[in-house]
Amino acid sequence: MDSEIHAMGGLQTYGEPVLYQYPEEMGYSYICPVQINSRGLMIQGSSIGYPDEPMSEPGFRIDGYDLILRFCETVDDAVEFIGRYNLFFEPAPSNLAVVDANGDAAIIEKTKSTFAIRKTDRRSIFTTSAIAVEKRTRKIQGNTTRTYQFGFKRHQLIENLLLEEEKTPTIEAMQRIMSNHTMPSPVCRHLESLSPYSQLVTLYSFILIPREQVYYFSVIRPGSVYPCEQESTKYSYCFT
């Protein structure tokens, strides 16, 4: 099934694509939920807890994703933008994955007070919820909680899967990773298989191919039909 996006949508049903189209003087247009702008910059994030970091309410609330997608074109632009304004991504600190049209990519681990950047020379880079990797953010998070241990095992699992699959990074390879159910910390998380202290389930999954302006998206359906149990919908998009 192909769906085309050409104009700005209205209220978004979860998983349904929406184009936010702006006049040039207001920044670049972008598409949700894959969050890619008209210059080929994509950003996604997952929440992460920092129990040892003092909590403080931000002076005012802004949509950090919206600002980056509207005013940044490259990974370096996004990193500089976050650092300049110390952007905080509600509702919690976040691990951010940023990719641009040039093939550059970075992971940004953002706390309320600081951030750390991770890049790689490999063909893949990734992040997950619940765990910080870089020394600066790792120190703030600590590593003693059960939530951290669960996240660390999941991080190790994804790293091992990528080492196997990145040699031929096909759509099928990415789908195999996202549909992995290796216990005790599976990539694809079903509520009935999770521990009481980690109840975050997989709501959606997608594979984005910016060069072809297409992405494959699947979202949880009523009756707890998880993304791994259904065929992805293929969407094409354009900004003109």
Mind sketching the topology for me?
Blueprint: E1 2-5, E2 18-20, E3 30-32, E4 36-37, E5 42-47, H1 64-71, H2 75-85, E6 94-99, E7 105-110, E8 115-118, H3 135-141, H4 146-165, H5 171-178, E9 204-209, E10 214-219, E11 233-237
Parallel strand pairs: 1-11
Antiparallel strand pairs: 2-3, 3-4, 5-6, 6-7, 7-8, 9-10, 10-11
Entry summary:
By secondary structure, the protein is α+β, with helices and mostly antiparallel strands.
Global structural class? alpha+beta
How many structural domains does the protein architecture include? 2
Give the averaged pLDDT, no decimals: 83
The CATH class designation of the largest domain is Alpha Beta
Architecture per CATH nomenclature, i.e. the level-2 architecture of the largest domain: 4-Layer Sandwich
**Helical run tally:** 5
Q: What is the CA-atom radius of gyration, in angstroms?
A: 18 Å
CATH fold call of the largest domain:
Glutamine Phosphoribosylpyrophosphate, subunit 1, domain 1
Shape, please? globular
Q: Which range best describes the helical content: under 10%, 10-25%, 25-40%, 40-55%, 55-70% or over 70%?
A: 10-25%
Terminal CA distance reads: 22 Å
The biggest sheet, with number of strands, parallel, antiparallel or mixed sense and barrel status, is: 4 strands, mixed
Report the order of strands and helices: EEEEEHHEEEHHHEEE
Compute the number of strand runs.
11
